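Hi P.,

Sorry for the delay on this. The queue was packed all week, but I finally got your sequence through. Input first:
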Amino acid sequence: MITVFLDMQADAVKGLGRLRISAFLSLVTSLLALPLSGLFGRPESTTENPSTLFVALMWVLVFGLAILALGIASWVFRVLGWWSMCRSGMRKFYCATRYAVLLGPIVGVALLLVGGVALLLEMLGSGALVDGGLSGEPVGSALPYVLPGLIVMVVANVIEGVSALDVGLLTEVKALTLGAAVYLIASLLQPFQLLASAFGSTALLGDTASWWSWASNAASLLASLLLAVGFHWARDRVIQSEAQREAAGAA
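Then the structure:
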C-alpha cells in the first residue's frame, strides 16, 4: 500500500513538472506571437513598400517556424504531463483531460484542414476568388467550414483549464488557480483571433480587430506565466507533503 502511494506521489510530481515545462514553452510562444499580432493588425503598412513587405514575410517565416516548433513541444509536454497526472490517481477526470489534450488539437486541426479545402473548392466553383476572395458577406458563409474545428479545440482547452483549476484548488496554489481562470478566458478569445487572421481582421471585427488580437495574446501570455509558476509551486507542495508523510511515518 505504501509503495502504491509513493508511486502515485511520484507520478504527480512528474506530471506537474512536465506541465510546468509546457507552460513555460507556451509563455515563450506567446512572446514570439506578439510581434506577429501587431504586424497582422496593420496589414496596409506592410504592403506600401515591396522591401518592407519582403522583410515582413521573412519575419513571419522565422517567427512562424519558431512558434510551430515551440507549440508542438509544449503540446507534447502537456500530453505527457496529464498522462502522469492520470496515473497519479488524484482525479479520474485527469484521465479524460489527457485524451482531450491529445486528441483535441489533432481533431481540431484536421477539421480545419478539411473545412479549408471544402471552402476553397466552393470558392473555385463559384468564382469567389476571381471576384476578390473572402470579404464582407462571404465571411459569414465561411464560418460553418471552420467552426467545427474551432469548437473542438476550444472544448479541449476548456477541459484542460478546468483540470488545471482543480489542481490549483487541491494544492491550494493561488497562482495556479488564477492562471487556470485566465487560461479559460484566453481559450474563449482565441477563436476570434484565428478568425480575424484567416478572413481579414477589418472585415470580421472592424476597428477593434487589433485590440482583440492583442487581448488574446496578452491573456495567453499571462495565463502561461501564472501556470508555469503555479505548476512549479504545486509540484513543491506535493514534494513537501510527501516529505512530511515520510517524516511522520519515521516518527
